[in-house]
Amino acid sequence: MVGNIDYVEGIINVEKHSNKGMLLTLLHEAVHAILFSAGLNNVDDDEHDEQLVQALAHGIFTLIKDNPKLIELIKQG
User: Could you tell me the pTM of the whole model?
Assistant: First the structure.
């Protein structure tokens, strides 16, 4: 992944590469942000289990890609 998150400013930075790669990177960093906001960061090093973050990012990407109407349903929510 070629991205990072600034937790203080609440900004996710993603380096330019393939569209799919950029979207996966954005989701990856967003998962970090969600876990951090929920207080689920590792107290030892303020990082999350990268394997878990990667799995969640890919899962969310696949969920959205395989269910294009999902975003519209969420917006209507």
Answer: 0.84
